[in-house]
């Protein structure tokens, strides 16, 4: 039987939702691996809406589930309906929506809170010893919930290639072990069944980001 993998989205668009290329890559690689993706998103208001041309917030209001449905081609369920018993693994793509709509990381950093629905889902998969795949900024969710876990968001020294490297230092302050990896590489925390890759935390060609996400998906499916 095909592995059933929950994919949790955070909206539609890098600056206020899920990073679309990352979400698409996850879905393509799951399909190629013969796994069945089941897409979910919380039915809540976005923190704000960003004009992706200007890079500035707008007065609009949008719903995370409704916006995520754009990526899922309408085939999506409210996160509250997720039942871990019928699923084999969980993957959460990145994008600022993770730090704005699934948590308050964008405004509070290591002192953030995680959405209760999101935290409950992560804890349920972890308690069931089912693998969790995280890319880009989404490993911060595990850093907050599972102290002592091993993760990567790429590199921990900021430079032109790694503009968000301070995230790694903040995760270390939460008690995690950050492992430096290239964009096409993954890190596997075998004890916690966490598979992470940096994706757009790296200023890299999109095909390299796609390849790194592919390795993450393959390992999650293998562990499921």
UniProtKB/TrEMBL annotation:
<protein>
    <submittedName>
        <fullName>GAL3A protein</fullName>
    </submittedName>
</protein>
<dbReference type="InterPro" id="IPR029062">
    <property type="entry name" value="Class_I_gatase-like"/>
</dbReference>
């Amino acid at each position: 039987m095909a592995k059933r993998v929950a994919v949790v989205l955070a909206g539609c668009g890098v600056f206020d939702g899920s990073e679309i290329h990352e979400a698409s890559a996850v879905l393509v690689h799951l399909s190629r691996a013969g796994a069945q993706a089941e897409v979910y998103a919380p039915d809540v208001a976005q923190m704000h809406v960003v004009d992706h041309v200007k890079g500035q917030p707008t007065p609009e209001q949008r719903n995370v589930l409704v916006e995520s449905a754009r990526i899922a081609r309408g085939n999506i369920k409210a996160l509250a309906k997720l039942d871990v018993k019928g699923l084999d693994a969980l993957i959460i793509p990145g994008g600022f929506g993770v730090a704005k709509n699934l948590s308050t990381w964008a405004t509070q950093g290591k002192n953030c809170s995680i959405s209760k629905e999101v935290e409950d889902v992560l804890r349920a998969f972890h308690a069931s010893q089912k693998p969790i795949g995280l890319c880009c900024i989404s490993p911060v969710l595990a850093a907050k919930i599972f102290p002592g876990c091993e993760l990567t968001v790429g590199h921990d020294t900021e430079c032109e290639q790694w503009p968000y490297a301070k995230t790694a230092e903040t995760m270390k302050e939460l008690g995690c072990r950050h492992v430096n990896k290239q964009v096409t590489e993954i890190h596997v925390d075998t004890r916690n069944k966490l598979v992470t890759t940096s994706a757009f935390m790296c200023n890299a060609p999109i095909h390299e980001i796609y390849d790194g996400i592919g390795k993450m998906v393959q390992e999650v499916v293998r562990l499921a």
